[in-house]
């Protein structure tokens, strides 16, 4: 079973407008609601791939009830802690004319300390059933920066690999807990190194350096150019074929789902990167976030090029 952790869950709303006009009334052509927060996107993609998933985190109020309903419709089993405030909403506005997407992300209401303690206990109980854990996204207002460190360490004590997808202080603090995988983009790598610009070679060196901290896999997104992965057997680069992009939101989460599935099933390094990259690209072909069609995945999987750019990781 894959256990996903999303502390800052949300109701994701995707608005399609024919043309976005700032400062004016904009009519929405269509609206799609989904159980959101990065870990819920991971959950949805993993379920589509045929995996058993339990999602935990915080849910509150009417939005929280809707979140659980939407998640369960997607085949995700939920074990949320019911916090006092309303689960936040996040809005993505897609301009059909330009293809530009604009996002409005609420911060998430503060969670009482007793509810944080309840979440940590529920998480420890769920670890008895988990084979791999993913921890994704931000935390609600007021939560301490060590929360992910504690969650990672609890899983490590049980011999369960943790895949972490976060940024800023949460990522910086959590590296010392040695998650099995981190997936920073180039902006997040810059934050970690303090450098404004990094060449591809410097990205490789940074990924290798992060592996020396006890992280098994370091994956760096290169955007349209694909991704780099520093792994036990070396460094690999994935080049993804051009696809008809409908929605890029959730591609990174779908990729994390692919890595979780691959690590759970002990894929070899090259297959692991190919599998995760194919799910991410297939997600981009769909309007729904954290969603893909298996036929798209299968077609893309065969076309992805994996190159070994360094045979033995240092």
From TrEMBL:
<dbReference type="InterPro" id="IPR029056">
    <property type="entry name" value="Ribokinase-like"/>
</dbReference>
<dbReference type="GO" id="GO:2001059">
    <property type="term" value="P:D-tagatose 6-phosphate catabolic process"/>
</dbReference>
<keyword id="KW-0547">Nucleotide-binding</keyword>
<dbReference type="InterPro" id="IPR011611">
    <property type="entry name" value="PfkB_dom"/>
</dbReference>
<keyword id="KW-0067">ATP-binding</keyword>
<dbReference type="InterPro" id="IPR022463">
    <property type="entry name" value="1-PFruKinase"/>
</dbReference>
<dbReference type="Pfam" id="PF00294">
    <property type="entry name" value="PfkB"/>
</dbReference>
<dbReference type="GO" id="GO:0009024">
    <property type="term" value="F:tagatose-6-phosphate kinase activity"/>
</dbReference>
<keyword id="KW-0808">Transferase</keyword>
<feature type="domain" description="Carbohydrate kinase PfkB">
    <location>
        <begin position="11"/>
        <end position="291"/>
    </location>
</feature>
<dbReference type="GO" id="GO:0008662">
    <property type="term" value="F:1-phosphofructokinase activity"/>
</dbReference>
<dbReference type="InterPro" id="IPR017583">
    <property type="entry name" value="Tagatose/fructose_Pkinase"/>
</dbReference>
<dbReference type="GO" id="GO:0005524">
    <property type="term" value="F:ATP binding"/>
</dbReference>
<dbReference type="GO" id="GO:0016052">
    <property type="term" value="P:carbohydrate catabolic process"/>
</dbReference>
<keyword id="KW-0423">Lactose metabolism</keyword>
<dbReference type="GO" id="GO:0005829">
    <property type="term" value="C:cytosol"/>
</dbReference>
<protein>
    <recommendedName>
        <fullName>Tagatose-6-phosphate kinase</fullName>
        <ecNumber>2.7.1.144</ecNumber>
    </recommendedName>
</protein>
<comment type="pathway">
    <text>Carbohydrate metabolism; D-tagatose 6-phosphate degradation; D-glyceraldehyde 3-phosphate and glycerone phosphate from D-tagatose 6-phosphate: step 1/2.</text>
</comment>
<comment type="similarity">
    <text>Belongs to the carbohydrate kinase pfkB family.</text>
</comment>
<comment type="similarity">
    <text>Belongs to the carbohydrate kinase PfkB family. LacC subfamily.</text>
</comment>
<dbReference type="GO" id="GO:0005988">
    <property type="term" value="P:lactose metabolic process"/>
</dbReference>
<dbReference type="GO" id="GO:0044281">
    <property type="term" value="P:small molecule metabolic process"/>
</dbReference>
<keyword id="KW-0418">Kinase</keyword>
């Amino acid at each position: 079973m894959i256990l996903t952790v999303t502390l800052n869950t949300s109701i994701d709303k995707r608005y399609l407008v024919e043309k976005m006009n700032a400062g004016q009334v904009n009519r929405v052509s269509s609206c799609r609601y989904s159980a959101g927060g990065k870990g819920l996107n991971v959950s949805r993609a993993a379920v589509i791939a045929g995996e058993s998933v339990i999602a935990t985190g915080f849910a509150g109020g009417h939005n929280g009830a809707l979140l659980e309903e939407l998640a369960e419709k997607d085949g995700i089993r939920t074990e949320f802690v019911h916090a006092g405030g309303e689960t936040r909403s996040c809005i993505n506005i897609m301009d059909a004319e330009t293809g530009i997407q604009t996002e409005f992300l609420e911060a998430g209401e503060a969670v009482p300390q007793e509810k944080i303690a309840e979440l940590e206990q529920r998480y420890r109980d769920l670890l008895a059933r988990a084979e791999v854990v993913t921890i994704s996204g931000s935390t609600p207002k007021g939560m301490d920066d060590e929360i992910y460190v504690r969650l990672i360490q609890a899983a490590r004590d049980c011999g369960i690999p943790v895949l972490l997808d976060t940024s800023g202080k949460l990522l910086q603090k959590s590296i010392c807990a040695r998650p099995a995988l981190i997936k920073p983009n180039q902006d997040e790598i810059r934050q970690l190194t303090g450098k404004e610009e990094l060449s591809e070679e410097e990205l490789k060196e940074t990924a290798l350096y992060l592996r020396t901290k006890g992280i098994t896999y370091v994956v760096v997104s290169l955007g349209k150019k694909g991704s780099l992965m520093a792994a036990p057997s070396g460094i690999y680069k994935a080049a993804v074929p051009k696809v008809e992009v409908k929605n890029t939101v959730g591609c990174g989460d779908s990729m994390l789902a692919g890595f979780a599935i691959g690590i759970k099933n002990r894929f070899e390094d090259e297959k692991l990167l190919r599998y995760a990259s194919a799910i991410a690209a297939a997600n981009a072909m769909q309007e729904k976030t954290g969603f893909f069609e298996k036929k798209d995945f299968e077609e893309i999987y065969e076309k992805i090029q994996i190159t070994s750019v360094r045979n033995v990781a240092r």
